[in-house]
Amino acid sequence: MTATPLNTDIDEVDGDIVSGEFSLTQEDFHHLANVLHAETGIALDPGKTSLVYARLAKRLRALNLTSFDSYNAHVSTSAQERRLMIEALTTNVTRFFREAHHFEHLAVEVLPKLFDHAQRGGRVRLWSAGCASGEEPYSIALTILALLPDATKYDIKILATDIDTQVLRQGERGQYPEGAIARIEPALRERWMTRECDDAGAPVWGVGEEMRALVNFRAASLLGDWPMKGPFQVIFCRNVVIYFDEALRDEVLNKMERLLTPGGYLYVGHSERLKESGEHLQFVGTSSYRKPGNLVQ
């Protein structure tokens, strides 16, 4: 879940006020930034006043409010509006098989051992943290099915979490336009997905029963106590903690490391680096880390 600037036609006056249909002062901005940080851990850059204005002006109009000051007052008392504010200020940038090297590493180095474990009655758990609208966990599911077509016979599950309930609903629906599935190999697409129509009658590709059976979607924040207890053999947490401040980023990644089984793998975004420790996580490839130990017994 990443915050992305929008182009707007508003003006910044003296660097501390955005003027337009509504007035956004630095005080308004800091209040909203503090709420976003408290709710999600995302640190909103001070230069993002235009983004805040463009994204939230729609909410002011919907609520018939005339100022960001009144909107701040509403946000302070409404949990529902805080959720809508978070969804407005974050854009979920994702696609199938994004950073393909991770899925190649998963297929070659990790899954064969996990499949052997599963076929002997073992439990296999993978976690897609910050899963957005489902492309990442479904890419993991396709990687599994390509190698083990009867994977649903075994105790293999992918947990997919995100703070944004709207995109989670999209993931649970599991329907994607033609352009979104371009990175999926045709043979995989034809075998594990179906041609459908969405609610508006537009042609889409839907995830098949086997893909759906492997993935469980759940709303969860990476802040505070986590409902997910693990352990996991694999965690994908890519391009999520990069928007946290350093202390929170380290805290989240340390908690993830503790949820990994010995020999478990953590995949992060290409621009993210972890503090390495031989006792905890070891760098094993492009933005890929491994916890010391044997992955399976």
How would you describe what is shown here?
The structure is a single chain. The chain is an alpha/beta fold and 297 residues long. The protein folds into two domains: 11-89, Chemotaxis Receptor Methyltransferase Cher, domain 1 (Orthogonal Bundle), CATH 1.10.155.10; 100-290, 3-Layer(aba) Sandwich (Rossmann fold), CATH 3.40.50. 40% of the residues lie in helices and 20% in strands. The protein contains ten helices and 13 strands. Strands 9-5-4-10-11-13-12 form a seven-stranded mixed β-sheet. A three-stranded antiparallel β-sheet has the order 1-2-3. β7 and β8 (203-207) form a beta hairpin. α1 (26-40) packs parallel to α3 (68-77), α3 (68-77) crosses α4 and α5 (100-119) crosses α6. The longest helix is centred in the middle third of the chain and has 20 residues, at 100-119. The chain is globular, with a radius of gyration of 21 Å. The chain starts with 10 loop residues before the first strand and ends in a 7-residue tail after the last strand. The model is unreliable at 1-16 (pLDDT under 50).
